[in-house]
Amino acid sequence: MNDTATSREDRNKALVRERFEAWAQGTGSPFELLTEDASWTIEGRSVASKTYRGRETFLREVIRPFNARISVGLKPSIRGIYADGDVVVIFFDAKGTARDGEPYANTYFWLFEMHDGRVTRASAMFDSVEFNDFWVRVAPAEA
Question: How are the residues of the chain apportioned to helix, strand and coil, as percentages rounded to the nearest 5?
């Protein structure tokens, strides 16, 4: 591997780790790395599984409704961040408390395709049984 690829991988991993740390502290999120026209695909068979075109579409249809179902914010705990060229893979657990007082915990595997330090395409995998139970069981708070 050449030094250019290694430094790009290190930069991408550092950017992602920084945004995850901000998320854990409640001061930011990895979604800040998304370009305006980024696509985000939720793989599998969850109620949210599909490809979302554009950052705002993904935030509006998934992230905001998710957060409206949470009373104590989701806190990520990274198991590992890996990079190969412009691809960064994040393996992490996240826990929070749903509005109904029940815990929400899931394990996630995200793949980011990055360009110039921004995410242009993402894929996410997680326990869809846990997610679906939470999504259906808990009504979002009124805005």
Answer: 35, 45, 20
pTM, full prediction = 0.93
Residues 6+ apart with CB under 8 A from 116: none
101: left (phi over 0), alpha (psi -120 to 50) or beta: left
**Inter-CA distances, 92 with 6, 50, 80, 81, 142, Å:** 23, 21, 7, 9, 29
Contact 47, 135 (CB under 8 A): yes
Asked whether the beta carbons of 85 and 55 are under 8 A apart, the reply is no
Is the Cβ–Cβ distance between 44 and 123 less than 8 Å?
no
Task: Give 68-81 pLDDT, tens digit per residue.
Answer: 999 999 999 999 99
